[in-house]
Amino acid sequence: MNRIFRNPIMDSGADPWMFRHDDGYYYFMMTRRDRLELVKSRSMTGIADGFRKTVWLPPKEGPGSRELWAPEIHRIEDKWYIYFTASDGGGDSTRRIYVLENESADPTDGDWVHKGAVNTELPGLDGTVLQHNGKLYFMYAGYGHFPEYGSAIYAALMADPWTLTGPNVLLTKPEYAWEKQGGMAINEGPCFLIRHGKIFLVYSASTTWSDDYALGMLSAAEDSDLLDPSSWKKSERPVFKKSPENSVFAPGHNSFTRSPDGSEDWIVYHAIPESEGGSQRRQPRIQRIGWTTDGEPDFGIPLPTNSDIPVPSGEE
């Protein structure tokens, strides 16, 4: 009998990030606001019952002390890094992306060392890294006016995992109506898939509390100059959006991972289970993604809340 699971995989949680490591574990993080919590699980569907550890508590005041958002864990040159957004409580102009480093083989062990804020040219949020062709790239959502107040996605090279070198290049800004829902024009939450000779930059558009929060996508040839905006082709339509018939609204701020046996690609995202439910109702969900004959990701539509879904391939 095939094993099944149901979405959401947890009752609540925003900005889910799931990392599959070669030690056989999945490492999971999401926004907790007042702390950084790392979850370790043998399975994707068992995250809610995984081992949990608070790995960072912010200072009581000052830079990086408030509104800890969108943490991501990455493995770079045999060390662990966590990138997260935080402010001093003074609004968007004080929001930065901060970096922690851990040299232990297991990120739930050892000490996390604070490496400071990434030296971005703009205040912003949702920092992530891309390791590709021997280079380390940093992407983030920088604040500005596009034309309404909101954010756009910038890219830069990194001299090391916490230091940018060279200019911050604008890759995508809100241009279409579906990127301007909920009262602001927003591109945020960049993350990556590399398959079939292409790099796909998937991002979230519009406000996270809007029913119409959705995913957009840029694509570039794997051997192109990733800091040249002309290398990227932008989808004119969202690639993943609400499904009222399935009781899924505002799907976005995602990450990607693979099934335990490595044969399937999965998207990890948050969504709201009812229209106008508000950002406090965001829940983490997962589902398998497919591929078109042209080598493009096919996200389909968000699967129904509480429906039976086969577990990822190779999950015990």
Walk me through the structure.
The mean pLDDT is 97. A hairpin with a 2-residue loop joins β6 and β7. The strands form five sheets. Strands 10, 11, 12, 13, 14, 15, 16 and 17 form an eight-stranded mixed beta sheet that branches. A four-stranded antiparallel beta sheet has the order 2-3-4-5, with no helix packed on it. A four-stranded antiparallel beta sheet has the order 6-7-8-9, with no helix packed on it. The chain has one domain: Glycosyl hydrolase domain, family 43 (Tachylectin-2, Chain A), CATH 2.115.10.20. The chain has strands spanning 4-5, 14-20, 26-31, 36-41, 51-56, 66-76, 79-87, 96-102, 113-117, 124-132, 135-145, 149-160, 163-172, 185-195, 198-205, 214-221, 233-234, 249-258, 265-272, 283-291, 297-298, 309-310. It contains no helices and 22 strands. It has 316 residues and is an all-beta fold.
Task: Spell out the CATH superfamily.
Answer: Glycosyl hydrolase domain, family 43
- Beta-strand share of residues: over 45%
Q: Helix count, per DSSP?
A: 0
Q: If you compute it from the alpha carbons, what radius of gyration comes out, rounded to the nearest whole angstrom? A: 18 Å
Quick overview of this protein structure:
The chain is built from no helices and 22 strands. The protein is mainly β and 316 residues long.
Break the fold down into its secondary structure elements and pairings.
Blueprint: E1 4-5, E2 14-20, E3 26-31, E4 36-41, E5 51-56, E6 66-76, E7 79-87, E8 96-102, E9 113-117, E10 124-132, E11 135-145, E12 149-160, E13 163-172, E14 185-195, E15 198-205, E16 214-221, E17 233-234, E18 249-258, E19 265-272, E20 283-291, E21 297-298, E22 309-310
Parallel strand pairs: 12-14
Antiparallel strand pairs: 1-22, 2-3, 3-4, 4-5, 6-7, 7-8, 8-9, 10-11, 11-12, 12-13, 14-15, 15-16, 16-17, 18-19, 19-20, 20-21
